[in-house]
Amino acid sequence: MLSDLAIRKAKPREKPYKLSDGAGLFVAVQTGGAKLWRIKYRFGGKEKLLSVGAYPAVSLAFARKRRDEVKEQLAAGIDPSAQRKLEKLAAAKAARNTFGAIAGELLDNMAANPLAESTLSKNRWMLQDLAAPLANRPIAEIEAIEILDVLKRIEKSGRRETARKLRGMIGSVFRYAIVTLRASSDPTSALRGALLKPNVQHRPAITGELQLGKLMCTIDEYDGWPTLRAALQLLALTVARPGDVRYMRRSEINFERAMWSIPAERMKMRRPHDVPLSRQALAILRDIWPLSDYGELVLPSIRSNRKPLSENSMNAALRRMGYSKDEMCAHGFRSAASTVLNERGFPADVIEAALAHQDENRIRRAYNRATYWPERVKLIQDWADILDGFRGLAATTRNAA
């Protein structure tokens, strides 16, 4: 049997030679001085050699341990060389199955399903940008501590809710990897309770009659880009979500039926939603319609008729009008409508249907869409008239002052 001292003292010769440790294990001393571990064995009647590594990087103890493993494989009828090739292939495959690659597959699947573009964009941002430190890691090797480190960095920046949502999205990638046989567990399950609870911040909204009337007058007098002014007016009149208004398409507007049909893939709840258009909304649409004659979007940006208004443009316009982020935001028009209409005694179910809120009951959900249409048409027209009344109140107050 060999010893470390004997291997260290072995000098190179004119020709390579072997130092045997017994049972097939030996060191091949090369003419250049390199000392390489080899294991000689027989399988299927043929003599074979298995490379173990170079001494001293591979120690005598490790080489003996590898020889014992080879003996066990032979006893089980396994060819160690063939097994090593399989292990290398598996390792190469695992290296290709990175978190980033699998996240990309999941995003492609999401894109193929009826999912709102705003939701898809947010999911891409989370998985491709926020989770970038995990992108090149083989998914089967990622541990909970790595994910926690990514989440805690986001949490420390003050974005607690974003960190919690990212944990859920990362978990979706792992669950997809599990069902496609590329991971065996979801490490995000161990992180439940590891993140701080988000600070709930309600969206600011103006709900007072006089204040809301002043806001509408200010929007009407806004001298910025026409489609931006129209977008804010339509936000108030349709009580739709800002993203739905931004991506409004000409093909979705039916002037004869006074209806805007939003397809399921753009809706937050992944179901189509029809919006009644008041006389005031139709007038605004007819006024700005020529601005999008050469594109699909009703409310194109100032830079290109192929791109919608930017996500922050409506809020930025409100800031330029003098309304702070604590007073009003683009999403606040929905809250304002809900508050005013509920206070005035309009049916709660009709208001919820107009706001496209998800109903827990599937039958009732279908009933809302089918049966409440006449009620919603009346509600939206009444709401537009109420806003006109608020404008009149604001104008009277301003003139009196």
Give a description of the structure.
The protein is α+β, with helices and mostly antiparallel strands. The protein has three domains: 4-88, Double Stranded RNA Binding Domain (2-Layer Sandwich), CATH 3.30.160; 99-191, Tyrosine recombinase, N-terminal domain (DNA polymerase, domain 1), CATH 1.10.150.130; 209-400, Intergrase catalytic core (hpI Integrase, Chain A, Orthogonal Bundle), CATH 1.10.443.10. It has helices at residues 4-9, 60-75, 80-96, 99-112, 117-130, 144-156, 160-179, 209-220, 226-238, 242-246, 279-288, 313-320, 332-343, 348-354, 362-371, 373-400; strands spanning 17-22, 25-29, 35-43, 46-55, 253-254, 259-262, 273-276. The strands form two sheets. A four-stranded antiparallel beta sheet has the order 1-2-3-4. It has a three-stranded antiparallel beta sheet with strand order 5-6-7. A hairpin with a 4-residue loop joins strand 5 and strand 6 (259-262). Helix 4 crosses helix 7 (160-179) and helix 14 (348-354) crosses helix 16 (373-400). The protein is elongated.
